[in-house]
Amino acid sequence: MRLRDKVAIVTGAGSGIGAAAAVAMAAESARVLVADVNEAGAKTTVQRIEGAGGQAIALTADVTRAADNQALVERATAAWGRLDVFFANAGVPQWKTDVEEVDETTFDTIFDVNVKGVYLGAKYALPVMKRARRGVFLITASTAAIRPRAGGQIYAASKGAVVTLAKALALEVASRPSPPTRRCCRPSWASRRWTPRGWRGTRRRCRSAGSTSRRTSRTPRSSSPRTRPP
Ligand SMILES: NC(=O)c1ccc[n+]([C@@H]2O[C@H](COP(=O)([O-])OP(=O)(O)OC[C@H]3O[C@@H](n4cnc5c(N)ncnc54)[C@H](O)[C@@H]3O)[C@@H](O)[C@H]2O)c1
Question: Which domain range does residue 132 map to?
Answer without folding.
Answer: 7-199
